[in-house]
Amino acid sequence: MEEFVTLTYNGQEIKLPVVIGTEGEKAIDISGLRQDTGFITLDPGYANTGSCLSAITYMDGEKGILRYRGIPVEQLAENATFKETAYLLINGKLPNRDQLTRFSVMLNDNSLVHEDLKAFYQNFPRASHPMGILSSMVNALRSFYPELGTTEEEINSTMTRLLAKVRTMAAMSYKISRGHRVVYPRPDMTYCENFLNMMFDTPVKPYEINRAAVNALRVFWILHADHEQNCSTSAVRVVGSARVNLYAAISSGIAALWGPLHGGANQAVIEMLTAIQADGGDYKKAIERAKDKNDPFRLMGFGHRVYKTYDPRAKIMKKMCDELLDSLQIDDPMLDLAKELEEAACNDAYFIDHNLYPNIDFYSGIVLRAVGIPTNMFTVMFAIGRLPGWIAQWKESMDDPKWKICRPRQVYTGNLQYDFIPIHARI
Predict the structure, then answer these.
(1) What pLDDT was estimated at residue 402?
(2) Which residue from 44, 166, 320, 393 has the highest number of Cβ atoms inside 10 Å of its Cβ?
(3) Does some domain include residue 405?
(4) Cβ atoms of residues 135 and 251 within 8 Å
């Protein structure tokens, strides 16, 4: 039986359909509201606005639930490879053995990048942030690989190419920034092993694969693979709605992810810890400052826009963080400071009462530092992990026959009409 919500204004009643999701989520369909009444809705930041119907990711911020295509993220982090997770998000189901083999071969076959791309990297100013470079370079891929095509096979080829090449491009940008020889991907290594080898292998000191680091990177990328309609995913959908090519849509997602309130938060955690260290390492002072409403200081890596309980990804990443630090036996005062800050904040009544638990950015920043990833590459790591989700969301929107170009409205609050004033008469 179809449900409706009735909106009453000045004696006029408007019936608005209720849309119910598979998990019982309810939404009011206002798509015909302006046409019927002249009204629009106002929702700054779109915190209560559903922009689409999606079958990719389900999350419940009150209960701390996150599932990809119905599978709890906890199970994927425990059992799946990153390639399996990427396939699941993009294709809607886990691959069987043959499908995974074909997918792996396609990733290997597309992992090299055009040699001319090196010239692009080498001409960026040395101070350029890796995220700005990555966004530009992904957009540039359109010039090197223009055959996007419209058939399912052609689109799948383009999506796989992105998954393979962005990983290589990220490692390449790091090597070139240090003036080192570029290391190419190897077909005998897994997706995660390949990245670490491309990052850290040198002719002087060959990189030795560390199982704990590889596993930590696998879990990190799985936990970041998708997260519903966040800022960067919405950017991919909005830009993609103009029917731009996939490279341009993904480039917009990378740019959105760059922000310190989004993907840049894990980098901001390390920068915050650095500042606390420089101030004598007094984490208790930092906690008190964070509780002071008149102090602009905030603890990065605590709290979440959607989760009102413990971020389910943070639980997994905390466990991975503890295992990694125990395995590597790293002596790093900053990592010690992070653990002291975490313990103090988790036992502080103010943080408990306000649901300000450590989020995934707090632990992922520590994990990436322990693995040896430079701080300015943290957000790039996030982008590699989120790539399957962006691709899946773009593909879903392109396959939706009802999807229109995104065009939000506004409530105008500027001047009323007045006549142009000649320059000699202006005050």
Answers:
(1) 85
(2) 393
(3) no
(4) yes
Query: Residue 182 is part of a domain; what is its CATH number?
Result: 1.10.580.10
Residue 402 lies in a domain: no
For residue 169, give every residue at least 6 positions away whose Cβ sits within 8 Å of its Cβ, in sequence order, or none. Answer: 113, 117, 134, 137, 138
User: In degrees to the nearest 10, what's the CA dihedral of 39, 398, 257, 368?
Assistant: 140
- Sign (positive/negative) of CA torsion 83, 132, 230, 395? negative
Instruction: Select, from the ranges 106-120, 219-233, 258-272, the one with the highest average predicted confidence (pLDDT).
Output: 219-233
Average pLDDT over residues 186-213: 94
Give the integer Cα–Cα distance in Å for 119 and 176.
10
Residues 23 and 113 both lie in one domain: no
Instruction: Give yes or no: residues 35 and 177 share one domain.
Output: no
- What is the residue-wise DSSP string for 359-374? -HHHHHHHHHHHHT--
Domain with 391, as residue range(s), is 73-395
Say whether both 186 and 322 belong to one domain.
yes
In single-letter form, the type of residue at position 89 comes to L
How confident is the model at residue 221, as a pLDDT?
A: 97
- What are the backbone angles phi and psi of residue 334, rounded to the nearest 5°? -70, -40
**Structural domain includes residue 408:** no
Task: Report the CATH number at residue 54.
Answer: 2.20.28.60
Domain count, the chain: 2
| Residues 303 and 355 sit within 8 Å (Cβ to Cβ) | yes
Calpha distance 165→108 (Å, rounded): 10
Range among 76-80, 168-172, 304-308, 398-402 rated most confident: 76-80
69: left (phi over 0), alpha (psi -120 to 50) or beta: left
pLDDT of residue 164: 94
288-293 contacts at long range (C-beta below 8 A, 24 or more positions apart):
291/348, 291/350
**Mean per-residue pLDDT, 233-258:** 95
231, pLDDT greater than 90: yes
**Predicted TM-score of the model (pTM):** 0.91
Reply yes or no on whether the pLDDT at 349 is more than 80: yes
Cβ contact 385:68 at 8 Å: no
384 in a structural domain: yes
323 and 198, same domain (yes or no): yes
> Average of pLDDT values for 374-393?
95
pLDDT at residue number 22 = 94
Same domain assignment for residues 48 and 185: no
Enzyme catalytic residues: 304, 361
